[in-house]
Amino acid sequence: MVASAHSLPIRITSVAKSYGSAEALSDVSLDIQAGEFLTLLGPSGSGKTTLLMALAGFVPLDSGSILFGDRDVTLEPPHRRNVGMVFQNYALFPHMTVLGNVAYPLKLRGLTGAEAAVRAEEALSLVQLGGFGERRIHELSGGQQQRVALARSVVFEPPILLMDEPLSALDRKLRETMQAEIRRLHERVGATTVYVTHDQHEALTMSDRVAVLKGGRLQQLDRPDRLYDHPNNVFVADFIGHSHLLPTEVKGGRVYLRGHPVKHNKTPVPNGPLVLMLRPERMEILIAGQDPDMNELSGVVQRHAFVGDALMLTVCLFGETVITVKVPRLRGLLDSVPDPGQPIRLGLHRDDTILLPAEGDDHG
Ligand code: ADP
Ligand code: MG
After folding, report:
1. pLDDT digits (tens, 9 = 90+) for 101-145
2. Which of 4, 147, 170, 287 could be cross-linked to 127 through a Cys-Cys bond (beta carbons 3.0 to 4.6 Å apart)?
3. How many domains does the chain divide into?
4. Mutate which of 49, 52, 196 to test ligand 1's pocket (most atoms within 8 Å of Cβ)?
5. Is residue 362, in this structure, part of any structural domain at all?
6. Domain range holding 199?
7. Under 8 Å CB-to-CB from 270, ≥6 apart: which residues?
8. Ligand 1 pocket check for 48: Cβ under 6 Å
9. For residue 164, which ligand has an atom nearest its CA?
10. Which of 188, 215, 235 is the last residue of a domain?
């Protein structure tokens, strides 16, 4: 993270917004650091765009407040907020040249002529489009058009940059290239960046921190690795990465899976029902001996599937629960994989044993 001299922290406090009886945002509070790259992640309809548009000033709030640094912008109109914006559909002016598009925010701020042209040209070289200034928008590919939109969003050195699913119109390969480019651009310009996506992989790879939304409510705000390893609830566990959620029984402060005590690090154990989260790559194949820190799960291998970097095993646990286990294709490891139809013993280390409240705890 690079905090430029003029990037600003954002403080969102108890923000709410309804459309009729539908709550698009409900009691959302979020502190974003100056220069941070923060992603709003959630399924369609979870309130991501509403929150981003509230930051930009296009969506008036029912309650709550938004601060940019010390400045309360809750009631400020969009043109006074001085934020850069990038949208999914680029929103470029088709009748203007590339340079004209990029220089437009400068023109709005009263800067024209040679100085504006120099700054627009600089912004274009930041996105690898140096020398493209005289082209027409329709002469550019989708990826190039989105780069023009990026250049336009940073040309006036905004302290805050807002992006709403900027890559979702691009194919996968280009999307991955652009993810790295946006991250690099962020490091160069240093603006506090709020990025919206419904793609968990994109969120994990790009962000300093991720805010997970569901139904207009904040589920968890954390670093990508913390979200993945220590989700707060079943929704986050399910939405980020792959996981299986197995019901357990809690009796007298102990957790049991199918009658067997579960080794874990959760203290104190809550009273309510808990589920055990299993990540496909966190289980290992046990060959012999006993490890006191390892939970043992026995099952029967149903299928092997080759996926390039790994072997995916479909395993039936306790004769009823089907899970997948990811085995890296390392020499030696593969020799220990039982054939389909054969029994298997899986180990889950207590440090990887995550227990979550059985119900989505998203309504407080
Ligand atoms: P996301 O960007 O996560 O897909 P949105 O913020 O667009 O979600 O929408 C959140 C909820 O608010 C959805 O249920 C959506 O239907 C509703 N909504 C958003 N904008 C409007 C609007 N202008 N009028 C009515 N309902 C809206
Ligand atoms: Mg949206």
Report:
1. 999 999 999 999 999 999 999 999 999 999 999 999 999 999 999
2. 147
3. 2
4. 49
5. no
6. 10-235
7. 250, 357
8. yes
9. 2
10. 235
